UniProtKB/TrEMBL annotation:
This protein's name: Paired domain-containing protein
GO CC terms: nucleus
Subcellular location: Nucleus
Major place of residence: nucleus
Organism field: Camponotus floridanus
Transmembrane segments: none
Domain of life per record: Eukaryota
Length: 75
């Protein structure tokens, strides 16, 4: 009934209800989501480089700042 009223599937209602019972709200659980690959310092350096050279393609800038995942894959 609730799902029909809001136009969502029963599984969405079930997951939302279970999360509410677990957390007392609808907050995300800790540990969800993808882990960061770049640090805030890396992010600032990438943005600075893009502003310095606005016509350089993103893939060229990415090559200048290899992240840890790329380094591990090269081994």
């Amino acid at each position: 009934q609730v799902g029909e009223r809001f136009g969502v599937s029963p599984s969405v209602v079930s997951r939302a209800y279970n999360r509410y019972l677990e957390t007392g709200g609808y907050e995300r659980r800790a540990g969800q989501g993808r882990h960061r690959v770049t640090t805030r310092r890396d992010d600032r350096a990438i943005i600075l480089e893009a502003r310095r050279e606005p016509f350089v393609p993103a893939n060229i800038i990415a090559q200048q700042f290899p992240n840890r995942q790329q380094q591990q894959q090269q081994r």
